[in-house]
Amino acid sequence: MAKPKVVITRKIPAEAEERARGLFDVELNASDTPLGATGLARAMREADGLLPCVADKVTAELLAMPGRRTKIVANYGVGYNNIDVEAAKENGVVVTNTPDVLTEDTADLALTLMLATARRVGEGERELRSGRWTGWRPTHMLATQVHGKTLGLIGIGRIGRAVARRAHLGFGMRIIYHDPYPLSEAETAALGAERKESIEAVLRESDFVSLHCPATPETKHLMNASRFAQMRKGSILINTARGDVVNEGDLIAALRAGTISGAGLDVFEKEPTVPAELTSMENVVLLPHLGSATLETRVAMGMRAIDNLEAFFGGTAPRDRVA
Ligand code: DGY
Description:
The chain is of the alpha/beta class.
């Protein structure tokens, strides 16, 4: 029997590509340039399965396209706001994601951003590399402590919990959180955490606020001018979730006005475009969406997406089905 045809939209680690080659009639993207709407349309007309990444927009138009052959979209990523899930459901296309495997890496990166922003790591490195460092002095680049402070989590799913564990057990931080789906009392206690009834209650008490909610219509611009106004003076925002969750214009205004003192961002509203107002600020740390970017995890994400395709084409339910 002919193998199902699968298009993998971007280069993925060799180990995962190799496995995909063994299982499917695979089309790889040797140049690793984005396929764009036209390339995705061609892929979805010609292939039984699509393995896109979080930067590929799988729109309602593509999913409803006459002549579409693709029956499964196995996203390479835990977040799947790049896919119009409602349109997938309406058009009978299965969608899967890659949860679990990137939890710990993303939590590591959230802590990296907290430390880097609070301790002025980017600013210090820029000073040293540009030859402006004049030597040790008691009042040089004074920062704010991280250990022992209060960390507020917006969202306490897998990644939120992994951040809480690191911050509480490693840095002795007090953890507070808000989530419409709260943890049990035992789980909350194990993280040394305390649940708050509202986002505002978290913002008012936190020295650091870290976002761990999915990008949905409900969470779009969840952090806006009125929410920044609720944050403590001197506090720091961390975003490793999705750019859409933050109104970037309002964030820039809050940073400029000193409403909050810094931000550590791995995700942006219009990736890969980052507003010049942000790149010119010293009190922000900006990373190019690196949350899951370790070789181990990127291999594991590939394997998980391939597991989902293998199950689907083998006639069983893919474990990570979201539509
Ligand atoms: C995801 O998987 O959603 C990340 O943002 C990319 O690793």
